[in-house]
Amino acid sequence: AHDFVSQSKIFEQTLKLGRLSEKDYVWITSADSLSSFYINTRTNDQKTQNYFWFNAESGAPSCTFSGSSSYHDKLNLFASGNQLFDQQCNPAGEVSGARNGHLYQLGDGWVAMYPSQGYKRQAFDAKGNLLTGDLYNDIQLMPQGDMLLFKDKELVRVLDRNGRLRGLSTLGGSYPRLHDDYLVWSNFDQGYKIIIARYSSETPIADFLQQQNKDEYETTAAYRQRITRLSAPFNRDVQLGTYNADNQILPVIIDNVTVDIRVPAAQAKRLKEQSSIRLQGKVKLLEPGIVEIVDGALSGGDVSFKIAAAKGSAR
Fold first, then answer.
1. 3-class state of residue 272 by DSSP
2. Do 150 and 174 form a contact (C-beta atoms < 8 A)?
3. How far apart, in Å, are the Cα atoms of 171 and each of 45, 128, 288?
4. What span, in angstroms and rounded, lies between the C-alpha atoms of 69 and 39?
5. d(Cα 63, Cα 69) in Å, to the nearest integer?
6. Predicted TM-score of the model (pTM)
7. Residue 128 vs residues 68, 102, 105, 242, 292: alpha-carbon distances, Å
8. Surface-to-core class of residue 161, CB atoms within 10 Å of its CB (0-12 exposed, 13-18 middle, 19+ buried)
9. How far apart are CA 36 and CA 167, in angstroms?
């Protein structure tokens, strides 16, 4: 094993995998924490497979499982099926609710995937208590600890770390991919769509974004009436794009979302000369997914410029 950053050897070790044929499949995968890795071997007829686990610092062997397995670096436990094992490979309990499922780490707890049910998933806490009663296409854990649950033809459900429902998204999603606090998910409800969304826990904007979600017991009429009254203070550092002198447009970049604001050239030049710029104002919800910043101002150093209302996506 070699460290490409320090250009140094981590270990040199013969890894014993038992008898293999030329047609067997062999591949290596690291655990998420990089503290362990496993080598998966599978016979050509797909009938037999083994997972050989090793310590990533020394190459020393740890456990071997016949079937899919994983390692939880916070609980220091291996999982094979719904069975748990300690560092010495001794039985350490089970997640009884995940029978016929394969367990993988999800934050402090587990996510169970069920191959016999289309690889649908459920979430469990560290003690094996079920957090999501239904089966979902995918479950993503956000850096703040909230879980996002995806299912065909349903809005994305947002649960806190204890499994309590915080709200629903304004758009449905089927299969997501997580990039830091951004999500990219596909939607098959009305043709194939790709949706990019940002999940924020920043207060009070997070509360504002959460309130725009429709409660499952709220009628559509009551929901639309409620969201027209939603507003929250907005105060955030922004980036400035290249000024369009012909149209007097200054692009303002807010978390990778660009809003075009009309600013005279002289004021735009002074704003761009500042080391940092903040956009302050009030954010209001025009309709689900669309917000408007009103009573706003761009400021930096001793320069300030009041802006007209700017519209953008509620992400």
1. helix
2. yes
3. 43, 31, 9
4. 11
5. 10
6. 0.59
7. 19, 13, 12, 53, 44
8. middle
9. 36
